[in-house]
Amino acid sequence: MSPPEILISEFAGYCWGVERALDLARDAAFNAKKPVCSFGPLIHNPEVIRQLEAQGLSVIEREEDARSGTVVVRSHGVEREVIERLQRRGLHVVDATCTFVKAAQEKAARLRESGYLVVILGEPAHPEVMGLRSYAGPDALVVENSDMLPGELSSKRVGVVVQTTQSQERLAALVGALASKVRELLVYNTICNATEQRQQSAQAVAASVDVVIVVGGRNSGNTTRLAEICRAVQPNTHHIELPDEIRKEWLEGCRRIGVTAGASTPPDQIEALVAHLKGVAS
Ligand code: F3S
Question: Once rounded to an integer, what is the mean pLDDT over residues 57-86?
Answer without folding.
Answer: 95
